[in-house]
Amino acid sequence: MLRFILIRLGQAIPILLAIYTITFFMVRAAPGGPFSQERKVAPHILEQQMEYYGFNDPLPVQFFRTLWQHVTFEFPPLTSYPGLTSRDIIADTFPVSLELGLLAMIVALAIGLPIGILAAAKKNSILDYAPMSLAMVGICLPTFVIGPLLALVFGVWLGWLNISGWFSFSDRILPAFTLGLFYAAYIARLTRGGMLETLNMDYIRSARAKGAPEFKVVIVHALRGGIMPVVSFFGPALAGLISGSFVVETIFQVPGLGRHFIQAALSRDHSLILSTVLFYAALIIVANMIVDIVQILLNPKLRYQ
Amino acid sequence: MTRPPFRNNFIEWVYTILPFILLGVSSFMFFGCSNSAPTDAEIANTLRIGHPAEPKAIDPHQAISVAEGNIASALFEGLVTQPAQGDTEILPGVASSWTANAENSKFVFSLNPNAVWSDGTPIDANTFVESYKRILTPRFAAQNAVLFYDILNAEKFHKGEINDFSKVGVSAISKYELEIELNRSVPYFLQKLKHFAWFPVPIHEIQANGDLYSISNSWASSQNLVSNGPYALASWQRNLRISIVKNKRYWNTEKVSVVSIEFHTIENTQSQYRAFQAGQIDVTEEIPSELKSANLPNARYDPVLSTAYLVLNTESPSLRNSSTRIALSQAIDRKLLIKAVLKSGTPANRFTPESMPGYPLRSDLANPALVTLAESELDALRGNGPLTMVVSNRDVSIAVAEALQNMWKAKLGIDVRIQNMEFRTFLTRLDEGDYDIGYIAWTGDYVHAYTFLDVLRSDGLHNRSRWKHSEYDNLLDKSLTQHDSNSRLETLYQAESLLMEEMPIIPISWKTKDYLVSSRVQNWPASLVLLRTYKYVHLQN
After folding, report:
1. Could you give the CA distance from residue A171 to residue A231 in angstroms, rounded to a whole number?
2. Interface predicted TM-score of the whole assembly (ipTM), two decimals
3. In angstroms, what separates the C-alpha of B376 from chain A's closest C-alpha?
4. I want to staple B263 with a disulfide (CB 3.0 to 4.6 A). Which of A66, A123, A129, B51 is the partner?
5. At B102, is the secondary structure helix, strand, or coil?
6. Does pTM top 0.90 for this prediction?
């Protein structure tokens, strides 16, 4: 297993290098630069700014210098926030995105799993059709529709929760639900599918034949197998969730990483774009590796390949 | 059926551990939240302002946008200050009084010894000399240093042509007397001084934090920022909220009414509007465009010195003739455009806004004769293929472009191809001259027509039309040498008339600042150049 992990980590290095290279040159190819604004900067001032940030150096020099900065975690000052570096930004904002992502995952599981189980257990009844149609709606409705809708109802009309901000626990509720509902819908459908398959298995029939109560059959016997599709969905979904959602963070003014991901690109902040892209790439690589490890653990056949 | 024992164990393990993980995560989050909801008493004394973007810098020498300037203006104070309402008055700030010579080219400021930094360090004439040296230092690369070029030798120092700052026209005559000598007569110099770039900075604090002239000195990012204005920084939660409280050491602190101000960074205008509706913020940055015509109860439409206009690429084969450019302008139904698309503002028939005080001197603006393009000219124009209009990808800009496209098609039979793109790509296209028509706006820096007309100088930094006209430049230069304010404005008006005869730009609308201010906010400042003073605001609960 250790060997497997080491090999996977070794494979991650060329992947990250490739991502770095592609991103580096894409950023340079984008029209406009970090200092282009509606109110143009005078050429002699621009020259000084370019010099300070090292943009006047030959491209290969910049390429390797920036690469080395990412290897050693010694980041230069950002063009969009001169007093800060990428590390400050990620250290500030990633915990927020992580918290929001985990809360959203809890919401997704707490809503998606019971609905999916119930729908499978009461197949082709109203308890199946109604929540599953709702889940379909949940998948189709994007967060930028659900978010403002929830804010309008619970913030403006009922006045129970804040519209924006990230101060008290109640401020976590709306963003977590907005982000979680989409995944809840997915999980409900995956659970239902997985459960239906498992409920047709022979061992379930034996359990019923032995006289086990229906609740026990569904929750204890069938769920163990039925939840498997959700487990494989969980890894990549979690990576997506915790790296921040630009839409939800913007709607509810959550100070997370997702906003910087977009904002860095819009403000052509080369250093911040590279750092956030590499950070996200590393997260996905780690999440995928964990999923693979879990799959190996679950399927002994894979262990010897 | 037998299942691998391992799989069974693993799932049991997951089942056992999952509830604990969930419980742990949720309790961590519950107790991890430090701030509780504010009490009613706190809200009663706190002015909460919706802020459009996380500031790049609140160092007044590095702040660029109006929004950054708004925060800097609460924390810092310059030699002179803005009145509560309007812009014409000039009130004492760090300087308690001042004198000027007859030509308005030399100013002496007497500083108030009671004006000190929030850590108690005194502010003297030398603080200003050092501060202005900082913003003019070439390697500090401050964009707003160009605002200082009226000062004798400031431009030379900033461009590295001279290295001796004592040759620059800023000097301390005595401990509390500052002299500023200009390279020419500037009657509105005191107006320019209100801009946040002219605020002093705590030299001692910046030096303690690193290199005084470094772009990335982080003194202004730290929580214990030292300032000299009516407010001092209390806390800064990035991308969330900047809280400031009354500065007890401010020389005029008894006049400051609002105890604390919070700037809530909310980028999305819809979110700001909802937060305002829910009573979470008292002032918004703008009204969402679809609600501008909805007669919202707390809406304000303040006139500002800002003009939305079309910049025409005068080097484009189709737009070389001024008659074509004028015909394009005359085909625009500005009233309809404002009513149907922009939803606010006034139709503009010249570049300098009508809200500019004292300008023009005459109200007899001659309506330029209606230009009718000959059929042969129109054919030639159509023969060049469709005109390319570039706009940034904001909904309003795209709607404006589509409306204009229709108007030109209906009245002139000209085809226009619209290209909307991300903002910096759009700017690059304009800068490279890769366009025919662009939609953009200009906002004045100070209250004088010159801040507008200077834009279209032949070698002007912001002149994206590539229009070059020596007579226009001569008129602008002539205005600078005139000491009499009226004859100067007259010259500028001649320049403006010439501009409208040549039409390298097509003015569309004089903009207003459209935003919401809660009824509990009293004496909210209105400024044509969007410079805000918070010290006169009070809250009524």
Report:
1. 29
2. 0.84
3. 37
4. B51
5. coil
6. no
